[in-house]
Amino acid sequence: MDVIALVERGTPPAQLPGVRKVISTVGPSRVTRLVRVLSAIRWCARAGYRTYFLRYSRFLLVMLILTYPFFRHRIFLWRSGTADLMDGDRRRTVRHRLEDLFGTLLARCVHGFVTGPESMVPIMRARWQVPAHRMRLLYNDIDSDRFAPLPPAVRQETRRRLGWDETEFVVLFVHRLSFRRGTRLLVPYLDAVRAELDRPVRLVVVGDGPDRSYLERLGRDRADLHLMGPVPNRKLPSLYGAADCFVMPSYEEGFPRVLLEAMSTAVPLVTTRAGGSADVVGSGYPFLCDVGDLPALIRMTIEVARLTDSERDALGARMRERAQQRFSPQHVAGMLEDIL
């Protein structure tokens, strides 16, 4: 398959493995972006490219829909989750309703609406009113060579470097710091887990977002709450590998990649059933609770902390095997090829 990558945001790499050409449409203004996107679409048409696969990009989606009468390309749009839902007690405004209507109109103009995992297909179909024959299933993938368990000596050295004592039970949270990700549950969660365990507990929070200041205020002068802020992706595998447990208390999700990262690293995880999370970990996973059920999150974390070494190793090996088989890049590439 011959592939061109169009990059709309950030600093694009000069080249990507398996990609013939990387085209940047990043610009200092909307006018510049518009010109670059139109130029890229025209170049792709002349070079014989007729299929576009987009992840979320509304600007490029609008441009592709508007230029379809001229170039007759196919458009496949990936979306998963309901991140446009309101947080907490906020109410929907006229602007939100108009954006919903606009998003629905755009979704119905694509040739294929792509989402995953399985439980998100009917949710996304109903949310965006997409005809059933246009729905497609596609997984996220995980590089299990990068996200892999650390050898014991490396794990011990990593914890020492991070300032995590070997006697501590370290719980890791990696996600956007927002209401919908359950970040406001983290401090009461930590306090309850600490009260139940007979060993020191540390909660390590990685990420950025609107709730960061909220957590910083509550975590001031607390040695058991380690707020690391945003961390480059290349450094994440060692954090997963050094942790004892991963927690995801989300109210809303789609296809959470952080679960795949924890699974691939063989770290036991505790998560809610938000979005497609149950599909990711498997329906038989023992540490899966209802959305918003803080007592269950606490109880399951304590159960993880009390696992024997052999029980922990067996659970981690099982989850890593699931990640390697079901969500490997090779398997997901095959799914995408079938779609395209």
From TrEMBL:
Record field: transmembrane? 52-71
Q: Where is the Glycosyl transferase family domain?
A: 155-308
This entry's Enzyme Commission designation comes to: 2.4.-.-
GO terms for molecular function, please?
A: glycosyltransferase activity
The source's domain of life comes to Bacteria
Keywords recorded for this protein, A-Z: Glycosyltransferase, Membrane, Transferase, Transmembrane, Transmembrane helix
State what protein this is by name: Glycosyltransferase family 4 protein
